[in-house]
Fold this sequence. Notes:
This protein is an alpha/beta fold.
Amino acid sequence: MKELLEKFEHAIINGDADASADLADAIVARGEATPDDIFVHLSGAMEVVGGRYETGEYFIPEMLRSAEAVEKSMTVLEPYLFEHRHEDAGVIVMGTVKGDIHNIGKNIIVSALKAAGYEVHDLGVNVSTDKFLNKVRETEADLLLLSAFTTSTKQALLDIIAALEANGMRDQVKVVSGGASHSEEFAREVGVDGFATDVKSTLAVCQRLTHP
Length: 212
Ligand code: B12
């Protein structure tokens, strides 16, 4: 199984969508991998790709091919992942904050949360404070998850917390933030209820906040 998961990770790193979808099929057919195993390899692959982009080994087309490989594999994996999920884990509104368009890590977290049984409303990228608040109100969400990848998004996070307070909604929803360039200190300064750095820690924080 380990070998199959490693091949799957390499196919994503290489941006080979057909191979990664075939390997996803083989993973499903074996039926041994846990959702955790799958997400560790998916996000691990994209972290390698992000690193290669930063060092100049990969350019935007290579990176986008890898993101497409993740997307294609997810369509194969989703039914399998959903078989393992616990229903009704909670309602989540999620998006990347205003001024930020990074979505690869956010999309992986959205899939992992859905697989864990959450009802997830993904608002996409560059999401305004109003849009977040309206969706939280409409869905009566338990959690608001904010992806923020650049340090310049700090103001957007502060604005969202301030708007929740101003509208008397701060006690109704727990706020969790995460994304590259996030640190525990950054999260404390912004005033969120939790922060996480990867799939595993995100699922753990969400579980802690919804089932204290
Ligand atoms: C890919 C990429 C891009 C792509 C984005 C494509 C896309 N569709 O997303 C493009 C080329 C468009 C881009 C643009 C820019 N980028 Co860029 N980008 C990256 C890069 C290389 C990889 C990001 C990635 O996808 N990683 C892989 C995924 C799987 O990891 P992840 O995103 O960290 O997500 C994981 C966790 O963070 C966490 N997570 C994610 N979201 C959430 C949310 C919650 C609630 C929780 C709990 C957890 C969580 O779980 C995920 C899964 O493990 C990073 C560097 C890096 N190595 O991270 C820079 C980086 C994020 N970018 C950066 C910058 C500065 C920019 C630009 C401003 C310009 C530039 N100089 O390139 C623009 C921003 C435009 C904008 N307005 O947003 C900086 C930010 C630095 C900072 N401190 O501010 C980084 C860190 C690079 C660097 N070292 O300078 N970028």
